[in-house]
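Researcher: For the record, we're logging two predictions in this thread. I'll number them. Prediction 1 follows.
Model: Prediction 1, sequence and structure:
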Amino acid sequence: MHPALAVGLVFGGCCSNVVFLELLAREFPGCGNIVTFSQFLFIAVEGFIFEANFGRKSPAIPIRYYLIMVAMFFTVSVVNNYALNLNISMPLHMIFRSGSLIASMALGIIILKKRYSVSKYTSIALVSLGIFTCTFMSAKQVASDSSLNEEDGVQVFLWWLLGIAALTFALLMSARMGIFQETLYQRFGKHSKEALFYNHALPLPGFLLLAPNIYQHAVLFSQSEPFRVPVLGLTLPIMWFYLLMNVVTQYVCIRGVFILTTECPSLTVTLVVTLRKFVSLIFSILYFRNPFTAWHWLGTALVFLGTLLYAEVWHSLGSLLARCRRRRRGRRPKEE
């Protein structure tokens, strides 16, 4: 597949996924469990048919290793989605999750004994400062909003702090999962499609623990206003339509990233994913009118600047321009 099409899938799928997730969370902030379950079920069924060949294909990586990875992946997915129910706005949610570089570097130093260049540490400092700025300004907003009702003010702020703690935990757990996955790939080889299937199929029994909450929101979804699907002409509750589109766009997003990793170098993947997050953030702020101050913009700029610096985009662009100049100089004598 052409890389341009993969980039289109990433931007179209991932950005649309964030939009439908916010539409769901704005109406029912506690719907994270049913969203996560639906995404896992869809990808698991697709992988069972096309990757596992209806269970006839044996995994290249032993199941016992997948069980460890699945425990971490399931926890990260549930906690990230549930954080939206803890007074965490969608822009802050996206900015905070962009800090995965911090967690990855910290655990890489502690667990893998890695050492990084000065530019890497500088980029992490920028990302950390950006996240701290956005988090601090969001805390002031929560405090000012809750001060309208003094009785509930402390409770609202404590729930927000719990949401920040949940996002921090998920960030560290996700980084630990990445390190574990890296060691598995070094030992058994890369099997991305297989890992995608087992990471979504094996956790499905765990959703039985969340069944009451999932059933409750399924009932609420069914009671939402009817919506007529434009092309198909079907009528269904609008929240089920949002959920369906969220699941489909999530699959398109994951497939796009997977294709991108196979067709392009890691630098390109990092740049595309970073730009995608920035576009999603801008759309969320403008379309949903989420509160966003000048300090939030500063923090956002620091996060994305640090991410691009970590990926050494500027160095790569400089090298590309230098090669272009050398080619032009080499052609001038021939033209004369």
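Researcher: Logged. Prediction 2.
Model: Prediction 2, sequence and structure:
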Amino acid sequence: MMRKKRKRGGPIACSCSSPVAAAAPPLESRRAAWTGMGRAAPSCAIASAARAEQQRRRLRPPPLPTLTLLFSLGLLLHTGDCQLQTPCRIQKCTTDFVSLTSHLNSAIDGFDLEFCKALRAYSACTYRNSKVCRGNLVYHSAVLGISDLMSQRNCSKDGPTSSTNPEVTHDPCNYSGRQAAKEHRGGEQTQPPPAYLFCGLFGDPHLRTFKDHFQTCKVEGAWPLIDNNYLSVQVTNVPVVSGSSATATNKITIIFKSYRDCTEQKVYQAVTDDLPAAFVDGTTSGGDGDTKSLRIVERVSGKYVEMHARYIGTTVFVRQVGRYLTLAIRMPEELAMAYEESQDLQLCVNGCPSSERIDDSGHLPLSVMGQLHPHGAASPTRPVYTLESATIKCHEKMLVKDIYFYSCVFDLLTTGDANFTAAAHSALQDVEALHPRKERWHIFPSRGGAGQPSTLSLRLGLVCLMLVVFL
């Protein structure tokens, strides 16, 4: 068989389609190829080896440092993408609303106006965040809640809104506004909200001091309840039953002292059967402008008035129940304690002098013998109460057997006047309206006191009542 001659210098077929074959040829074949293929053979072998190496590199996974770098870059890109998106700020809207309403009291005049202003500001804040908070459940819950509250309070959608920057638009004749401005000027330092104190006087008479101490006192005549740099309150007590040292209030004088440009001095005076809805000068308000810094509001004609002093954050309730008057006051602590050393005789601050006390550390001497006033002193129209009947009578209005309940029982046993039941009940209502701390509304006598009288304590109470009240 004749061989077909190959032309010199012609192209040499070099198949590199199989990387494995090209990468690992037998040693003899490689020698023959180098010998018989001339100069072109080495170049083909080198090309095959280079392609096989490239293929191996493509199949090999990237090293760990490379993966770490790529992962880090991905996180940075993702973070950058998140930072470009505007966050949902519904939490900021809610926080602002809470700060605007936390100091408000629903029992105080002007609550609805301020609450509606805060609601409109809250609504405006949610509207500004409507796009970025579209899928946020908290946002949608807030929108629904705002709508419900505006309906409940009859708030219009259009109107003034509360400012979250009180330093710019605060009212100098609004105590709450001044406090908010102080907090804003304080920067990032957290300022506690202003503390408020409560004082009340009712019944025979029973005193609840600013420190929540409960006392029953004689204090016949004129006595100062409050006497500080902003407010003076004086009460006059008269005997309830002839021959008894137990007294009740028949006159109240309140002096709102002049304060900067907010109000001039105003005097209010109430006596039994004359509970006016105006100050002694005939006016019903103090201060200039549409929003008065001091106002009198008549709730029940001749029976119940309220005084709202916005410039000192103070509210006063005065009632007539039966033949006697009751008083309840809510005032900021920093103002209530702003007085000179010579003004230390204040029943709301320091309580009654020990010589004027009827109770024993808050415990009232309850009698099982009914009234102890002298024979013939009681009105023939008034019933004679025993401990049992007085307890039943007081329980009709007050279900909780706290110190107000036992004050009611004590007053019925001492006077036989059923109006003292209503006085104790209204006094407790005033506490619930004005006292800043709900957990302190009710004061309970300790075990063995008026709450659960034993036979011995009742006998001792009888003796104490006879000695203390009628001597």
